[in-house]
Amino acid sequence: MLDADNLFLQNTDELFQCGQFCATFINPCVFHTGLFVLQPSTVVFNDMVNELRNGRENPDGADQGFIASYFPELLDKPLFHPPSNGTKLEGTYRLPLGYQMDASYY
């Protein structure tokens, strides 16, 4: 997924190797949903819809809060390093900060 205000400065095809879910942390505790990788899955989609119906905790009332509460284990996952042989990884990974920079870093 990609917010409309993102600008790619180079090819990012390696993100297609990034497992079932990958996102970048904007601070030590919260990941950002301006760019994230989510492998298409009807099981995950149906579960997310069910969680919305059941009133899953959503701290900010927006997509970022819901997705952060749905994938709370991301903080403990390894950093994504794309395999040089092009194989797709399994699992969940943190994306390096370079995938979600904003003006505050300059």
TrEMBL record:
One of its GO terms (molecular function) is glycosyltransferase activity. Keywords: Glycosyltransferase, Manganese, Transferase. This is Glycogenin-2. It comes from Trifolium medium. The lineage of its organism: Eukaryota, Viridiplantae, Streptophyta, Embryophyta, Tracheophyta.
